[in-house]
Amino acid sequence: xxxxxxxxxxxxxxxxxxxxxxxxxxxxxxxxxxxxxxxxxxxxxxxxxxxxxxxxxxxxxxxxxxxxxxxxxxxxxxx
Amino acid sequence: xxxxxxxxxxxxxxxxxxxxxxxxxxxxxxxxxxxxxxxxxxxxxxxxxxxxxxxxxxxxxxxxxxxxxxxxxxxxxxxxxxxxxxxxxxxxxxxxxxxxxxxxxxxxxxxxxxxxxxxxxxxxxxxxxxxxxxxxxxxxxxxxxxxxxxxxxxxxxxxxxxxxxxxxxxxxxxxxxxxxxxxxxxxxxxxxxxxxxxxxxxxxxxxxxxxxxxxxxxxxxxxxxxxxxxxxxxxxxxxxxxxxxxxxxxxxxxxxxxxxxxxxxxxx
Lengths: 79, 268
What we know:
The complex is a heterodimer of chains A (about 80) and B (about 270).
Chain A: H1 3-18, H2 39-53, H3 68-76
Chain B: H1 2-7, H2 13-16, H3 21-26, E1 30-34, H4 39-50, E2 54-59, E3 77-80, H5 86-100, E4 105-108, H6 123-151, E5 154-159, H7 163-166, H8 172-192, E6 197-204, H9 210-213, H10 217-226, H11 235-246, E7 257-260
Parallel strand pairs in B: 1-2, 1-4, 2-3, 4-5, 5-6, 6-7
């Protein structure tokens, strides 16, 4: 899967879980400020990404992940 | 005024009933009752079955029979499951989801006692009761809530006990597990409230189940005397409270501990 296809897939998960328009899902977007996602929504997104990409994300790996870009890097590092 | 109503989260009854109205009317949500083969669990399963829900039960010692209920109701789906085995809970949910769909209502009624005075309490007897009554509830709720969060709907009811708050000599393990359920339920209620999922506790007192059949007649007499209503409850009377808490009507109740104890626990 190339990077663009992976981001499209990531984006569709984020749109569905966070209930935000696709254009708000940018690499710079912050979960708390820009997307108004609470902690449970972030967990939901992680679970959706785990399912969509067939990966496993440990709780500790989420430390310091505050933006879409950081989350996307975490996902692609596992592909 | 309009703003104030919104700020307080006050909605009219027509608004609050708008969640999944078709399903609510048919009252055919999928319910899982753990420990549904005997006692309070079985009474809950039968009550929800009678009310029209599609009900699955887990059982360990006795398979519930018959599975068929009154005419026009869905038969119970019985799944063998030792709730203390993490793999069993996962497998039970998989089976139920394949047969009925995602669990929307979870009633945790599986429980055991293993009474002895603290000075005689072995690690094994302590752990067995905590594992069944508390840790298994954590696992079942975790598994169920993943789907409930996505569905933006869920009802969780945990069966605690009057002894959670009252204490009971010879039941340090049991009372600790049942008190633990209250803290667990209230924390979960806060975690999931934003997703339209309620989590409540029912705290029965003396109920005519196998659990009290094990008591000596003298002990039973003493306990019954302490109950203001002067008798033990039928399991169906506990099930009635559970049926209310899982209903759409109870949408605004979460984190509550509802005693069904004939007044035994008043003041605690």
